[in-house]
Specification:
It is built from 16 helices and no strands. The protein starts with a helix and ends in a 5-residue tail after the last helix.
Length: 443
């Protein structure tokens, strides 16, 4: 027992040097992207009330779901195939420029189609003027953000994740300032106008810095390259997986709006904030593991280094999750009451349960990148489909059986915790088999 604890403590040692600075930068960016929108949400709820803020959240959720369905997730293909193309022909930069231009074009096309649909629905009388404007502005915001992922992949490919964290933090501050200024100057519509303006500025900055840095590192894009073998199939599976994962999150709010109205949407958005904060702590860990696992797998070093990295990560996140819950449990009611108003303080119990689910799910944050790094996106897709179906089933059961929005949100929170526990147990139990199939030990 003592030896086992000693090995666990040894594996839990924190990263040092450059890795720690990168993690700190990405974590600060993730927390900024979670905290600042939450602060603007608090202002929105206090300024406009539950009903109007619920409509804004619903419009944003619909836009997110639409772009998730249209997003090819080319950032995953870029991280996997650009290094391969660079090694094969020296034209990794040409492949990347082709991918990011496709991403921008697809985002613009998806935004145009959605805006035409909103206009048609308004002319037919299906949408009110105010909600049509809300939905249109949310669509413009998400359309501008369509190429963020691929631009971020350029920073990972050139080993500039720390710079990416700094850039994301600055952009989050800009978006926060514009949206909050719009809210105080003109209400919810100008709030969305501020978000859209911030997204457009950020898209231009991300694109320019990402492409310049990558071209400086990999060389100019002077030749037209053929798509690497297997890239289309890989992209289709990763895109479907990411869409399913996103719909399981934003789709919950959309479905909650359809079934339970704006009040349930607002409750779930408020109560899920602590869980989102913790998720933004785990996301940088996965972002740093992804290129590391790819390098290990392509070098043919076997599964042992991968399992060692994943075990260490899981133990560190277990300690972080336990500490987070210990701090949050006694103060969540008071914090929500102070932030949103005393009428929302009772949502603390829902928030704590959702936070527990996020902490449990965060233990296996590597499950989002391990199958992709091993070239097995179908595994991730199958799991995310199962998880999404269970979450949607939990929400339907909660809405149909509960007597009100608060009771429905509490039932959904406990169901989410149960799904997270099942998923975490599955990935931990399957780790050795997954790595053995995707990256067998050299013989």
């Amino acid at each position: 027992m003592v030896n086992t604890l000693g090995r666990a403590v040894h594996r839990m040692r924190p990263p040092g040097g450059r890795h720690l600075r990168t993690f700190t930068s990405l974590t600060a960016a993730g927390l900024g992207e979670a905290v600042l929108p939450t602060l603007s949400l608090i202002a929105l709820v206090r300024q406009t009330g539950t009903e109007t803020s619920g409509q804004v959240i619903f419009a944003q959720s619909v836009a997110i779901v639409w772009f998730l369905l249209c997003d090819p997730c080319l950032e995953n293909a870029a991280q996997r195939f650009v290094p391969i193309e660079q090694q094969r022909s020296g034209q990794g930069s040409s492949l990347f420029m082709r991918l990011i231009r496709w991403d921008v074009a697809i985002g613009v096309a998806a935004a145009c189609v959605a805006l035409v649909a909103v206009l048609a629905a308004r002319l037919l009388g299906s949408l009110s003027d105010e909600f049509a404007f809300m939905l249109a502005l949310a669509i413009i915001t998400r359309g501008a953000m369509a190429s963020y992922g691929t631009a971020g992949a350029a920073f990972a490919l050139t080993d500039r994740l720390r710079a990416l964290g700094v850039l994301r933090t600055r952009c989050a501050v800009l978006s926060f300032g514009l949206s909050l200024g719009g809210l105080f100057l003109g209400g919810p519509l100008l709030y969305l106008v501020g978000q859209a303006a911030g997204a457009l500025v950020m898209a231009a900055v991300f694109y320019l810095l990402a492409t310049r840095g990558l071209l400086a590192r990999l060389g100019p894009a002077v030749a037209r390259v053929r798509l690497p073998p297997g890239m289309i199939a890989f992209t289709v599976k990763t895109s479907m997986g990411t869409s399913v994962a996103g719909i399981s999150d934003s789709g919950i709010l959309t479905l909650a709006g359809l079934l339970g109205g704006p009040t349930l949407v607002a409750i779930l958005k408020i109560a899920s904030a602590p869980g989102r904060f913790y998720a933004n702590l785990a996301i940088p860990v996965a972002a740093m593991l992804y290129p590391r696992i790819i390098r290990t797998a392509t070098a043919g070093a076997g599964r042992a280094p991968i399992i060692r990295d994943i075990t260490r990560t899981t133990l560190l996140l277990a300690a972080a999750g336990a500490a987070t819950l210990a701090v949050a449990l006694p103060v969540t009611d008071a914090v929500i009451g102070m932030a949103y108003g005393p009428q929302y303080a009772h949502l603390g119990v829902v928030a704590v349960v959702l936070l527990g689910g996020a902490c449990v799910k965060g233990l296996v944050c590597w499950s989002n990148v391990l199958p992709l790094a091993l070239g097995r996106p179908g595994w991730r897709l199958a799991y995310l489909l199962a998880e999404g179906v269970m979450l949607l089933g939990v929400l339907l059961a909660a809405v149909w059986t509960a007597s009100g929005p608060f009771q429905a949100s509490l039932c959904f929170a406990w169901g989410t915790l149960a799904v997270a526990t099942l998923g975490t147990g599955f990935w931990i139990a399957s780790l050795r088999r997954v790595t053995d199939l995707g990256c067998p030990d050299p013989r």
